[in-house]
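Narrative of accomplishments. A recurring question from our advisory board has been how the design workflow behaves on a single, concrete structure rather than in aggregate. To address it, we present the structure tokens for one chain from the evaluation set, followed by the sequence designed for it. No filtering or post-editing was applied between the two.
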């Protein structure tokens, strides 16, 4: 939902090219279908779909290693959760920067969110500030910038923003563990359901169960 709101925001202001990366995550087929549907709805024709073989081969995350269970509650402490995929966003951004250089694009939007979110270290503002210095030093023109318009927003605010922009939340996929119907109990589903509840809006996708959220 963060990526979708971010794509809707970028589409409002710019001619957008969209990147999707499959990296061996449990729900990669469903996420790729969501990407195609969202691009269709937003009218984004220029698309790049790539596969990253490294992240699954490396493992170390509940999303890419079947031996590590997806937790059913968001982490309540400040520890990095097991759903963190080690340094994943750097892989995504590196592909995006390479493509941007070829396209002549100067802005890369990413829907990273820090407050009331998963607690991933590659969603911190300082990380993107540092990455922008890497881009400046390592590209031909040095004029490409990663922007993170959602990074300081709470999830409920992202729901509101997306609704204002007409972001197609009905086409999005957030569940970490299932591809047929969103489970409603993994940490990603719970964060999403909390966000819609806090915004006072019904999430447009169906869930297998929402028991966990009703307990909160
Ligand atoms: Zn789920």
């Amino acid at each position: 939902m963060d990526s979708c709101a971010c794509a809707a925001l970028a589409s409002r202001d710019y001619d957008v090219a969209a990147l999707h990366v499959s990296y061996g995550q449990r729900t990669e087929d469903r996420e790729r279908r969501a990407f195609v549907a969202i691009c269709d709805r937003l009218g984004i024709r220029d698309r790049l779909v790539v596969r990253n073989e490294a992240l699954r081969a490396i493992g170390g995350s509940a999303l890419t290693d079947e031996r590590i269970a997806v937790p059913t509650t968001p982490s309540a402490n400040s520890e990095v959760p097991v759903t963190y995929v080690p340094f994943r966003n750097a892989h995504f951004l590196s592909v995006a920067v390479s493509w941007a250089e070829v396209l002549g694009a100067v802005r890369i939007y990413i829907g990273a969110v820090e407050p009331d979110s998963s607690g991933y270290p590659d969603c911190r503002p300082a990380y993107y500030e540092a990455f922008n210095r890497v881009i400046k030093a390592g590209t031909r023109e040095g004029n490409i910038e990663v922007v993170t318009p959602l990074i300081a927003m709470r999830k409920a605010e992202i729901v509101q923003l997306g609704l204002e922009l007409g972001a197609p939340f009905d086409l999005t996929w957030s569940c970490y563990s299932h591809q047929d119907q969103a489970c409603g109990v993994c940490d990603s589903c719970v964060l999403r359901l909390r966000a819609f509840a806090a915004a006072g809006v019904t999430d447009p996708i169906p869930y297998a169960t929402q028991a966990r959220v009703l307990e909160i």
